[in-house]
Amino acid sequence: MCDSTQNGSYDENLHIASIFVVFVGSAAGILLPLLPEFILKNNISSYKEVLLKNLTFYCKWFGSGVILATSLVHLLFEAFNTLSPNCINLTYEPLSPLIVLGSLVIVLVIDFCLARLMYRKRLKAEQTIRDSNVIDDGREQEEKNEADLKRIQKIQAHTDIIIIESGIVFHSVIVGLTLGVATEPGFIALFIAIVFHQACDGLAIGSRMAELSYKGKRLQQVIMIVSYALITPIGIAIGIGVKHNFDPAKVSTQLAIGILDSIASGVLLYGAIVDVLAKECFGTGGPTGKPGLLEASNMDVASAFGALLLGAGIMSLLGHWA
Ligand SMILES: [Zn+2]
């Protein structure tokens, strides 16, 4: 980013149009995996039900690949580049990986504390069952512990998604800003790439949301959807507003973007590997509490990894532009 000088022609109308197109792309991406949930509420034929459940499955694995590639190919690369010694004069040169390490450890600690709380609740619940000898009193306590456990499990699953969305949202602002200040030649290619970029990232968040129940948390779900759909258009609008004053090579801009990129990269790297892949593959208590892919048929495992590679591949290709 530090050596990018933009001297080409700038079509403001096209930039304003891009705000709306990117909004539609982002909204479509995040809403698509949530469709089955809304449609399945109505009575539909079993054929359609199978189709929709397959859609959820493929979206989820495709989305996992997208998150992995976003954390490594997009954020980590951009963070390293922006804070590279070629761009900025740093006393401590490996600053970017240091911040990635820091943010990864902080997210690990938060996630671990929640998991430990859940583990202790479970131990307590099991102990109560052993002690109770099916006395009514024990049964009541058991139900209470079970409810507590479910509540913490839900908090953890919802925290996981917020962590992933916050990493992606940060990258989305920068992507929007880049498009807002972009000039010809290159604007059209960047524009098309960003529409797909936002649709894929939206699909990744939407498919994680589809796994969870948002009963009693509808407002939170709506805020997450709306803020994701709006974040890149806002970035573009800011870019259009500051295009004459925006100098990506300025040291303070470099430092701010590089540091925030590094934080988002660490957050998303943890989210991609621990919250998404480890839980989904090895079944260490994913959002649904299901055993992950370990019990799935060979065909399902092959389909899951196929979709994962496709998501990671498409997002890696888009990394060429944004
Ligand atoms: Zn990107």
Automatic annotation (TrEMBL):
Transmembrane segments: 14-35, 55-77, 97-119, 161-181, 222-242, 254-278, 299-321
CC annotations in GO: plasma membrane
Highest rank taxon of the organism: Eukaryota
Membrane topology: Multi-pass membrane protein
One MF term in the entry's GO annotations: zinc ion transmembrane transporter activity
Keywords from the UniProt entry: Membrane, Transmembrane, Transmembrane helix
Main location as per UniProt: membrane
PANTHER family named in the record: PROTEIN ZNTC-RELATED (PTHR11040:SF44), ZINC/IRON TRANSPORTER (PTHR11040)
Protein name as catalogued: Zinc/iron permease
Species for this entry: Meira miltonrushii
Lineage: Eukaryota, Fungi, Dikarya, Basidiomycota, Ustilaginomycotina
